[in-house]
Known about the structure:
The structure holds 2 protein chains of 2 kinds.
Chain A: H1 3-17, E1 21-26, E2 36-40, E3 43-47, E4 52-56, E5 63-66, H2 69-81, E6 88-93, H3 103-117, E7 124-128, H4 136-156, E8 164-168, E9 189-194
Parallel strand pairs in A: 7-8
Antiparallel strand pairs in A: 1-4, 2-3, 4-5, 6-9, 7-9
Chain B: H1 2-24, E1 28-34, E2 37-41, E3 44-47, E4 53-54, E5 59-62, E6 67-72, E7 77-80, E8 85-93, E9 100-114, H2 117-121, E10 126-129, E11 134-137, E12 141-146
Parallel strand pairs in B: 9-10
Antiparallel strand pairs in B: 1-4, 1-6, 2-3, 2-5, 5-8, 6-7, 7-9, 8-9, 9-12, 10-11
Amino acid sequence: MNARMLLPVLALLLAACAGPDRIVLLPDSDGKVGKLNVSNAGGETLLDSAYATASAKGDRKADAGRTDAGTVNQQFGVVLAALPPAPVSYTLYFTSDTDELTADSRALAPAILAKIAKFPAAEVVVIGHTDTQGSDDYNDKLSLDRARAVKRQLIALGFDAARISVAGRGKRELMIVTKDDVAEPRNRRAEVLVR
Amino acid sequence: MKAKLLGFLLVAGLSATAASATADDVAGVFKVVNGGVSVLRQGATLPATVGMAVYQSDQIVTGSDGSAGITFEDNALLSLGPSSRLALDRFAFNSTTHDGAFETTLSSGKLAVVSGKIAHHQLDAMKVRTPSSILGVRGTKFLVEVGGS
């Protein structure tokens, strides 16, 4: 057998020596646990509890097992450390019929903006909303004005304008559901989504 | 003849639009890049940088000293450990309806996932393939290692 023929054989042997594929279900940041269905020609294995594992090799059905937080950190610490920060959202409130922040929100704004600035390659979406006083058209414009006002503040703090998108949702997505033509301070807001 | 030609032009126009829509849509953005990390895109090998966009059909490859984290349009978070290779087979996301598809293949190394709106909205719309299995993702945080010890 010459070397050229030996290489594929060696590769096959190496692949056969490698361990199984391993899957570990983790609790998320809120402590909640989702579900994973691991399937192949051999069948399906459902993972639905914290630190449940599946090991699968070839066409054999995956074996269910269990691990713990310490072992996970040892074996997967590097890849877990590379996860980007979870997206966050903030709500800022406005005074009636203006694109000016309430005194409370104005006081919060610098801390929020500083936090945004710490996100790596941050992308920001600002979505403005209104209460139900006034027409659809009027509120569409007011909600967009509110989103743009927040964008202007971000840019003033040195934020790259190209990384901020704005939208106005008018009175379509109420935080507090009211009848039409009702003043509701909690609906006069902008959501700032950062990721 | 005219109708046939018109039909052909319409079909050609539509498929061109569909192709450009998927090719141009940003799927995600690199937020973390450590050590050697590259993106294989249409035959080219590009060094990954923080802020760089990823697209459907890209492959992400990390060196023995590399790791990388990407945030996707549906807020899903993915990270790769050293000596890993991930193919982004399919990514589609409608930010209004949250309909979409998110399919990747891990052919070597380690992957961490926090699923996003696509998996939350629709059962099994997010899938991860490994050499041995297909993972149907019903949320939320999990790890995958190919051929580990």
